[in-house]
Design goal:
By secondary structure, the chain is α/β, with parallel strands linked by helices. It is 50% helix and 14% strand. Strand 1, helix 1 and strand 2 form a beta-alpha-beta unit. The radius of gyration is 17 Å and the shape is globular. The protein starts with 12 loop residues before the first strand and ends in a 12-residue tail after the last helix.
Length: 205
């Protein structure tokens, strides 16, 4: 069985189940720089890959030609409880999130223009969460209530920005650019969350 690797710079074995070849072809090169990525376009192909190998993380699209990617969650967790499961949805639908968490998902992500950067961060995070390390995430049961879900998302926001700052060596402007948010917004959020940033030279008027 594949063991969890705590170093976020170490490649993780990842299975991405999605039927959008254009999306995969656009993001695959980015993910493969950091991780060992395999893909499947439907449930049947995914089950074959899961039967042959244990992955550190799995990315599951909700809608597939032969069913829902959510149907793979129990199979993955039964075979390897330490495999992190990240589900993708087309919109921020509360019921979809609850369904995914109830079935055993470790996190979820809404598809966006920043998907490549978000996936790099979330892949490492779901692997840690699946291993039940102290990541600050609420338990699955706590995440099922509206209040628990808000806490879950707030925790994810902190981890997301913190990881972006790590990748940018504390440079807040660069982290904001990669995340697709304004620098003032990123600064306010970093201050609110007590995150350390690198001092940047002031720009003369």
């Amino acid at each position: 069985m594949s063991g969890l690797r705590l170093e976020t710079d170490t490649a993780l074995s990842v299975l991405w189940v999605d039927d959008d070849p254009l999306l995969i072809s656009a993001i695959r090169p980015v993910l493969r720089v950091h991780h060992e990525l395999e893909t499947a376009g439907c449930l049947a192909e995914a089950r074959q890959r899961l039967a042959a190998k244990v992955y550190d993380a799995a990315i599951l699209d909700q809608s597939l030609p032969d069913g829902s990617g959510f149907d793979l969650i129990p199979l993955i967790k039964e075979r390897s409880p330490t495999t992190g499961v990240l589900v993708l949805t087309g919109d921020d639908n509360y019921r979809s999130v609850v369904t995914a968490i109830r079935r055993g998902a470790d996190d979820y992500l809404v598809k966006s223009d920043q998907l490549a950067a978000e996936l790099l961060i979330r892949i490492a995070l779901v692997s840690l969460h699946a291993s039940r390390l102290d990541t600050g995430l609420p338990t699955i049961a706590e995440s099922l209530s509206p209040g628990g879900l808000r806490a879950f998302l707030a925790s994810a926001e902190r981890r997301f920005l913190s990881r972006a700052l790590e990748l940018c060596d504390g440079n807040l402007s660069e982290a904001a650019r990669r995340l697709g948010i304004g620098r003032s917004t990123a600064f306010a959020k970093a201050s609110e969350l007590g995150l350390r940033t690198r001092r940047e030279p002031e720009i003369s008027p």
